[in-house]
Structures are given as C-alpha cells and as structure tokens.
Amino acid sequence: MKYVINVMVFFSICFLVPSYAQVEREIDSILKTIPSQKDSLLADAFTKLHYRYRNIGDLETAEKYSDSLGALAYALDNPWLKGDYHHAKGGYYINTSNFQEALKETLLAKDFYTLANDQYWLAQCYNHLGIIYKYLGQTGLALESYLNSLKIKEDLGQTDPKSLMNIGVLYAELDNLEVSNDYYKRVEAICLEEDIPYGLALTRSNLATNLVKMGDYSEALRLYKEGLLFFKENELKNDLGEQYNLMAAAYIALDSLGTAKRYLELALNTNEETGELKEIGHTNRYLGDIDYKLGKYNTALRFFQKSLEIAGESSNTLDAVKDYLKISDTYEKLGNLSKAYEYRKKYYALNDTVFNQKNKQKISALELQFQAEKSQQEIELQNKEIALLEEKQKASRIQRIALIAGLIATVLIFGIGIYALRQKMKRNRLERERVKTELDFKKKELTTHALQLAKKNEVLEGVKQKALELKNGQGDGRSYQDLITTINFDQQGDKVWENFTLYFEAVHKDFEKDALSKYPDITRNELRLMALIKMNLSSKEVANILNISSDGVKKARQRLRKKMQLAPEESLDTTIMAI
C-alpha cells in the first residue's frame, strides 16, 4: 500500500503538475485527515504535504512536513519511511542549491531504499544523485547515476524520461549539442506519447537553450515563451524563475539589454520568493553580463562576485568555473592585471578539474558503448556468414546428387569414364569436407565470441566505473588503456593467459623476466597477480579476473608479500609498480 501511494504522489507531482488552486484544495483535504491518521498513513500524509508545498514554492512549510515525516519514520523504525524522509530532504536541498547536504541526504535515502528493496524509489535516488554530482563537478558520477536509474526503470518495464532529459542536460554542459538534442528528442517523443505536458515544457525549454548556443534565437525564444506560458498558468514558481533567467540570457546574446534586464527583475523576485539560490546566482551573473556589455565594469564585477559567492555557498562547481572567468575578464578591463591573473589561474585550475575531466569521461562512456555495439554487429555478421555457408552446403549437396546421377547414367549407357568419375567424386568429397570444416569453424568462432560477449556484458558496468576512476586522475593513459584491454581477454584457460602475457609484455616490456629475476620463488599464479596489480586494478576486479573471492585476493597478496620479503611499512603495489 505504501509503495502504491508514494508512486502516485511522485507521479502527480513530477508529471501531472496540478494547478495552484488544485494544490491548495489538496492541501486542505490532506490537513483535515491528519488528526485521524497514524503510522504509515500519517507518514504518507506528511509526504504529500511536503511535495505539495514544494510544488507551489513554499519550501519553508515543505521542510516542516519533511521533518515531521522524519520524526515519525525513525519512531516507527521503518526503512521505507526513512528512505522517503531522506529523499524528500535531499530534494529540498536541491531546490535550495545546497548540494553537499543534498548529497548526504540522498545517499542515506539510497541506502534505506536498498534495504527495503524498493527499486522504483531507488531509481529516483539515482536521478537525484545525477543532478547533485553534476553541480558538484563530478560529471562521471552524474552520468553513471543517470544510467543506473535508466537500468532500474528498464528492469521494471518503465520509461525514465527524467534521466534521459538529465543526460541531455549533461551533454549540453559538455557542449556536445548533437548528442544532447538526441536525448531531448527522445524525451519529447515519450512526453507526447504518454501525455506529460510538464515534461514536454521542460524538454522544449532545454532544446531552446541549445538553440541559443547554436545561434537560432528566433526558434529558441518561441520555445521559451511556450514554456513560460505553461509555467505561469500552473504557477510553477521554481520553473518560472529559471525560465526568466534563460530568456534573459537569450536577449543578452541578441544585445536586447533592456528586455533582458526586465526578465532578470522578474527572475530575481521569483527566485527570492522560492529561495532558489542557484537561480539567484544566475540572475546576478546575467546582470553582470549586461553591465559588462555597457562598459560598467565596477558594477559588473560586483554582480559576478555575488554570483561566485552564491556558487561557493552551494558548492556549485559548474557555476564557479564560469564566474572565475568573468571576474578575470572584468579585472582585465579595469586594468587590474594582477587580480585578472589571479582569477584566471583559479579558472584554469577548476576548468581542468571539471571540464577536461568531463570530456574524458564522456569519451570513455562512448567508447564502452561503441565496443558493445561493435561486438553485437560482429555476431550479426557471423550469423550471416554461417547462413551463406549453410546455403552453399545445401547447393553443393544438390549439385553432388545430380552429378552422381549423371555419372551413373553415363556408366550405364557408355560403360566408360570410371576413372574420371572416381576423381570427380574424390574432389566432391574434399569439397564437402572443406565446406563442413569451414562451417564448423565458423560455428565454434561464433559460440566463442558469444560467450565472450556475454562475459563482457556481465562485467562491463564494473569495468566502466574503474575506467572512469582512472580517467579522473588515478592512473595515466597507459594504465587506462591496460584496463580497457582486459575486457577483451577471456578468463578461462591457460591459452588465454598466454595471450594475455604476450600482450602484457608488449606493454610492460621484460616485466616477467625482471620479476622472476628479483623474486625467483614466485609461482605462475603469483606472477599473474603481480601483472594485475601492475595494471592498477582494484581487489574486486582482480577477484573477478582470477575467479576467486575478495578474501582470496587478500590472502594471495599476503602470500606474495611474504615471498617478496617486504617489510610492513613497504607497499606491495608501489614495489610492483617499480618493476
């Protein structure tokens, strides 16, 4: 019952978007039921009230009811309700742009939903985590979170337009507008098919933002105005404040500064009413852009510094990067080159941490996806080759029968050509054997490839995470390539390990010889373990590759340390890396 009620609450808030008057009527109706409710039904009432007040922008009252929900959830010691409380609290902190607190609450919600085995709400947590990680500048984790949400929804047989749209937003941040627009179009199709007007308005507003970057201002403003009308009619103040900012940015790009300033005044009033800190920061930055264009550099600087201050308060790394650059440019205009240099250094440092990292992570994700698609295409191609071989075998069999019949008729009629007939039959037999051998080889090749693909698909998600971590700076390009290469190796049989050793030695030349020279007592299995440690793999990955448990990896490492005679303070990993 609790699951059904909460799904209905979430669906009605996030997709149906009732009008302001309807929300007030629902609030009055719920408040009347509270004195007669208890336990889980009372918790659902608190949950509904929290989301209803968030929906109309009254975040202070919304927080009061989430706190009431939390007190009840912990009094009942119910993991489901605890998950609801922390999820609601995390959403509240996202709305108020307090991303560090939002992360803490949402991770707690994820743990409780996992404990309660509530897959639907677990997917919602991953979606929230994607949003939070994006603003914290950890875009690899953001993409991974969105993909986790999509996978759970897919397993439940449901669509997930929110995660698809958020992935589109992430690619827009990467300036990959083509991929971003593809995701937005997918969401647009889902919203049209499932009649989700709110999702449609958000998606088209996001498309408009990409159009502004592409220079198509006319179409962008048309879509913005459609969204603005929808948000006004439904009194969605959080979305309305953001829409005013986006439209102002478009008019700034068009040098329509007076119109832009009017929209920013509306944005500031709306966002101060809702307490949406992130959007207040954006308003200040856009006001700074206007004064910068007008040559009013001192006032522009104050606006940019206010925007940076807000970004710092909310741990909004993405906005901080932009603010550093604008402040540096403004100081340069003011002739304060030392300050310009100081902020330009901050910009480059943060930009290298966030944006370059994001590009690498994006490439990694696309590479993994490409490998999977390529493997599938290869299997389909081999299926076609087998079908052609089977047709060839069939045709050869028919041809052989006809030939034998003709030869028999010839023998009966003419009584000659016995030798020629035997030679012809021999050649046909060899051809049959050749075709059959080729067919068997292709079937075996296909079976082997399919098994490899099945294994690859089983570990692909885990390998991807490690690849992203390596790209985040925990290893150099060679270590990353080593990790990717391990996907292509089978885990079974000494033959695969021989191939692995050949490849490994090509990358880490003379590693085996040097290792045996320094530590002659190590075994073949211990040498394999050293090779995997040399590749900077985690204990979990080593366990998967060696087909042993995590405890088994620990014991194997301890045995290896003993044979290498390492002192307690010496690092096994560092020693092996130095070989």
Automatic annotation (TrEMBL):
<keyword id="KW-0175">Coiled coil</keyword>
<dbReference type="Pfam" id="PF13374">
    <property type="entry name" value="TPR_10"/>
</dbReference>
<dbReference type="InterPro" id="IPR019734">
    <property type="entry name" value="TPR_rpt"/>
</dbReference>
<dbReference type="InterPro" id="IPR036388">
    <property type="entry name" value="WH-like_DNA-bd_sf"/>
</dbReference>
<feature type="repeat" description="TPR">
    <location>
        <begin position="281"/>
        <end position="314"/>
    </location>
</feature>
<feature type="transmembrane region" description="Helical">
    <location>
        <begin position="401"/>
        <end position="421"/>
    </location>
</feature>
<keyword id="KW-0472">Membrane</keyword>
<feature type="coiled-coil region">
    <location>
        <begin position="365"/>
        <end position="394"/>
    </location>
</feature>
<dbReference type="InterPro" id="IPR016032">
    <property type="entry name" value="Sig_transdc_resp-reg_C-effctor"/>
</dbReference>
<feature type="repeat" description="TPR">
    <location>
        <begin position="123"/>
        <end position="156"/>
    </location>
</feature>
<keyword id="KW-0812">Transmembrane</keyword>
<keyword id="KW-0802">TPR repeat</keyword>
<protein>
    <submittedName>
        <fullName>Tetratricopeptide repeat protein</fullName>
    </submittedName>
</protein>
<dbReference type="InterPro" id="IPR011990">
    <property type="entry name" value="TPR-like_helical_dom_sf"/>
</dbReference>
<keyword id="KW-1133">Transmembrane helix</keyword>
<dbReference type="Pfam" id="PF13181">
    <property type="entry name" value="TPR_8"/>
</dbReference>
